[in-house]
Amino acid sequence: MKKLLAITVCIGWLSTAAKAQTAVDSVKMTIDNMFRAMKTADSALLRQCFADSAIMQTIVKDRNGANMVRNEAVGDFIRLIGTLAKDAADERITYDVVKVDGPLAIAWTPYKFYLSGQFSHCGVNSFQLARIRGVWKIQYIIDTRRKQPCE
Question: Sorting pLDDT into bands at 50, 70 and 90, what band is 2?
């Protein structure tokens, strides 16, 4: 009887852990697909990663050194990636934080970006994703960009 109870508790715990892991893994898969599409210059795969109303922004310095937010059109980004050679755009990320609440997810991913094998810049991506018709889509990205320090 004790053995059956222990097995039941373990199965319940593993089932709960697997469900929680699946949501985070599926969010990461969408983000990983975006970077895979960039690296392989696959604009069709890249387009699939984004929600129809997605927004891209980056924080940059103006001429006076003050921070400002620059908007970037997702369609322009997809077209640009499609014109690059395979392996030209290589953004290497790590997952610092991924959180999921139902149809909403966030991810914080420090990165280093290489263009044609040469280091270009580093920073952090902040992703907002929405689960739309059962699929995670990137709704919003804002990032920082700098030459150093890159740790």
Answer: low
